[in-house]
Design goal:
Distance between the termini: 16 Å
Oligomer: single chain
Shape: globular
Number of helices: 11
Order of helices and strands: EEEEEEHHEEHEEHEHEEEHHHHEHEHE
Length: 411
């Protein structure tokens, strides 16, 4: 029976959805109407489970997922899943870069996506269908682990919304937010305190991105925040995974540590000083090469360790060059595990999954596994084998998690 995903309703589902029950070709205006795309001004939080994808008329359709789009500081990553029985595979994927890694990141909050990425419209022809789920880049959404006074759901939602608006320095009317409870069994609570995880996005930002995608021929369905997409992606790879797990998402300029259980993110920490660029910097400085050349060397040779021995002397040199940055990353993980062990002991992970650009680095999983004695591996929908090959999927984990939204239906 498909699939062995959790069927217990989630407390929250941080995602935008259209107010209309479906979107068809005739609903798309010839000239874009901003009020039509006000579909992204409200959140939906029902229980969800994976079922069979349906088309805009509610009919069962093919085993292809939606087009998943991750917006980054330097480009876009796309993925579309295909369901094969009880398993998933990436049927199509693509990446688009509009700047070099060492260039200043694009500010998508003030820039027209179609201007900096003219390939947006042609890219749609690489995929089947038009339904799109997208995730805003880091900085496009905000989150907080909060301890709120115990109250009813309406009051908790209002308090979380006000906290996020203040953090984002926006009026409450300018953001959309959602929250979900961190189970009480995960924390020794003081009387009258409810721990929650809250997320929010600026509605103007998400609506403008949706407008750009609509103009390029896509049909935006959902704008989701990264932690949900990444938590879901792990269950795609290991649907029978039990217990808590961590997702270490190493982006170009920052790293996210997300602790999850049953496809639900319950703790988030972002480390802004460490990212893929910081891992490449010592290589560029030592060998006087560009970031693209350093990235090619690092992906080919990797770090020497138990999980990877293919780089020879080059891998040994890379270990030395990256020792300081890897040490800083391990230090941040140490601090995270220490805090979580005190406050949320049931969230200490049994496994850790590497995603993002850093997930492509051969041998990094072995370095982290040896340090923390936690089973660590790059995210992949392929069976892991002794020779490094699965890491190539890791940068597409978020886009794959977005594509899988096609199979989510009310429980």
């Amino acid at each position: 029976m498909f699939p062995p995903f959790p069927t217990k309703p989630f407390d929250g589902r941080a995602r935008f959805v259209p107010r209309r029950p479906y979107i068809t070709e005739q609903h798309v205006p010839t000239t874009l109407l901003t009020d039509w795309l006000d579909i992204f001004s409200a959140w939906e939080a029902p229980g969800r489970c994976f079922g069979r994808a349906r088309d805009s008329h509610g009919l069962l359709r093919s085993n292809l997922g939606w087009i998943g789009l991750e917006l980054g500081a330097h480009g876009l990553r796309w993925a579309q899943l295909e369901r094969r029985g009880t398993e998933f595979a990436i049927a199509r994927r693509w990446s688009t870069e509009w700047s070099e890694l060492d260039a200043p990141p694009a500010d998508l909050s003030t820039t027209n996506l179609r201007e900096i990425c003219p390939e947006l419209a042609p890219t749609r022809k690489l995929f089947r269908g038009k339904a799109l789920a997208f995730c805003l880049p880091t900085g496009g959404w905000e989150w907080r682990n909060l301890e709120l006074p115990t109250a009813d759901e309406r009051e908790l939602r209002q308090m979380a919304h006000q906290e996020l608006a203040a953090e984002m320095q926006l009026d409450p009317e300018e953001i959309a937010s959602d929250y979900w409870r961190v189970e009480e069994g995960d924390k020794s609570l003081r009387d009258g305190i409810t721990p929650v995880l809250a997320v929010g996005v600026a509605t103007d930002f998400s609506t403008r991105i949706a407008n750009d995608c609509l103009a390029a021929g896509f049909l935006p369905q959902v704008c989701e925040v990264a932690p949900w997409a990444l938590a879901r992606s792990v269950l795609l790879a290991q649907p029978r995974l039990c217990g808590a797990y961590a997702v270490l998402h190493i982006g170009e300029r920052d790293t996210s540590i997300i602790l999850c259980r049953a496809g639900k993110p319950l703790y988030i920490r972002q480390v802004r000083q460490i990212g893929y660029m910081q891992l490449l910097a010592p290589i560029c400085e030592a060998w006087q090469i560009s970031t693209s050349e350093a990235a090619a060397i690092l992906k080919k040779a990797g770090l020497a360790g138990d999980s990877h021995r293919g780089g020879g002397n080059v891998s040994a040199l890379l270990n030395q060059l990256l020792a300081r940055v890897c040490g800083e990353l391990c230090g941040e993980l140490d601090r995270t595990w220490a805090y979580v062990g005190r406050v949320y002991p049931k969230l200490l992970p049994e496994t850790m999954w590497l995603t993002g650009s850093g997930g492509e680095i051969p041998g990094l999983d072995g370095v982290l596994q040896q340090k923390f004695e936690i089973v660590t591996q790059p995210w992949s929908l392929q069976p892991l084998i002794s020779v490094w090959s699965a890491g190539a999927d890791a940068p597409y984990a978020m886009a794959a998690g977005l594509s899988a939204l096609a199979w989510e239906e009310p429980a």
